[in-house]
Specification:
Blueprint (H helix, E strand, L loop, with lengths): L1 H24 L1 H4 L24 H11 L20 H16 L4 H4 L2 E4 L13 E3 L4 E5 L5 H19 L7 H27 L14 H12 L12 E3 L6 E3 L24 E3 L6 E3 L16
Helix pairs in contact: 3-7, 4-6, 6-7, 7-8
Length: about 300
Amino acid sequence: MEGFFLTVFINLIIIIVVYLYNSFANQEETTIYRPTQYFSQQSTKPPSTKKQITKFESLLGLLLSKGIIRQDEFFYSPDLMPNDTIKNNLMQVIIATCKHLCLPITLALNTKFIDCTNEPNTPGKKITGHFDGQNITIYLRQNNTLTHYAATIAHECVHAYLRQRNISLSDTHENELLTEVATILLGFGIVYELAYEEKRTYTHTEAPAYISLQEVKEIRKLIDKLPKPKSSNNTNNRICFNCKLKMPKGTFFCKHCGYENKSDKTTPDNINSRICPNCKLEMPKNSVFCKHCGYESHNR
């Protein structure tokens, strides 16, 4: 009889331990994170704590609780791209995106491009990008614009950014939504909006993001309530012709890449450059030898 009660007692202890372990393991994903505590004091009065928190508010709160802060808006203008091949233009976007996120440039150099223009027309969402933990793959599809790919590149690079910081959710769909919110928080919301507005006839399977244009705008409104990045307070900035990052107006050498910007214009009249076929970095259009790797290129 004593053995029976001992067995029951041990089984009960095991059940309690397993329950507590599962509760702890799922705690992060079931917790409702409220972003209102991070809102700027200049913003409107935060909503009542009794108000139902939306999915995007909870995901934004989770990112803020992990130390991810609002970043400057990513500078992107397809009109400033040189008249070059789609792959070379995309490489410039990837390099600029990595620099914006302070990701290693090797992530850009290891990016793979797969031509899917002749693939059969199968149902389901058309994947335009993938990050496998080390490399980014971009799937080139017919009728996709450069801005569409820029949105994909931002999303995949943010996957790498979050992975560096061990931020993820176990549910695949929820993790994609988390990445979308993070992408907008880190300054790429403008790219998403441009991608949607360039081609307003997107079907669900061809959309440039997992979320709709209306949801992009909803998330951006939430983020607008957060304190602006300190660098945003300085309006005396211009864009470096080489790396496309912000630099103080009145200076000529970029602090990010060292490039000498001889003109003090806010944006260049044109970009007289091309991509080295060897190292994939930008070089003057009329140069024969790449200043980065020394590769001899005669294509002008």
